[in-house]
Amino acid sequence: MFKAIMDKKKITIKLKNHDEIEQLYETSFPVIQKMPFSVLIFISHRKNAEFVAFYDNEEFVGFALYLVYKELIYVLYLAVVDSKRCQGYGSKILTSIEEQPNKTIVLNVEKEIDENDPEYEHKTHFFSKNGFVKSNLKIVAEKNSFYDMYVKGEPIDKKQFQKIISHFTYGMTNLKFIESKN
User: How distant, in Å, are the alpha carbons of 21, 78, 97, 135, 146 from that of 61?
Assistant: First the structure.
């Protein structure tokens, strides 16, 4: 693991490159995975939510939105500017998130059933390369897709993950989880 040597700034509507960050968000995730950007800003005002932009020599390279709850960090979104991909910036962003001691980091990767998805393969390779292990938990999104959970740190169980989701959604979500043998 290498030290994250980038600057980071809290994302607000007043941040000078707010529009550039929003554009990266809009182009990085499928519609089904996205909330309105204004909701992300709202979430970021929660006590244990971090919505941060990352910069290398003042040049915007990516962002992450993650939630910290007790011993868990749940990464909702992480994106790197297209022209900066495959240059170590995603790993540096993860390293920055990992700087919080004694936390297990959890993130999800969408997988469509019966589809060979090169983007899925790229993402899972990236997270594995950065020390994440595929969990036996999956989130069922729709009848044709689900999210594999990847974990770095202590293994988590369904109950732990449901607690973080319930905490940050005020109990207003009804996600379905399944346990598999990977």
Answer: 9, 11, 15, 29, 28
Mapped onto helix, strand or coil, the DSSP state of residue 93 is: helix
The listed range with the strongest mean pLDDT (32-36, 71-75, 137-141, 169-173) is 71-75
The number of distinct structural domains making up the chain is 1
CATH number for position 145: 3.40.630.30
The residue type of 94 is L
Strand order from edge to edge, sheet including 145-152: 7-10, 49-56, 59-69, 72-80, 104-112, 145-152, 133-142, 176-179
What pTM does this model have? 0.84
Residue 104 lies in a domain: yes
Residues in CB range of 173: below 8 A, 6 or more apart: 165, 166
| Cβ(128)–Cβ(94) below 8 Å | no
DSSP calls for 37-70: HHHHHHHHTSTTEEEEEEEETTEEEEEEEEEEET
Q: How far apart are CA 66 and CA 83, in angstroms?
A: 23
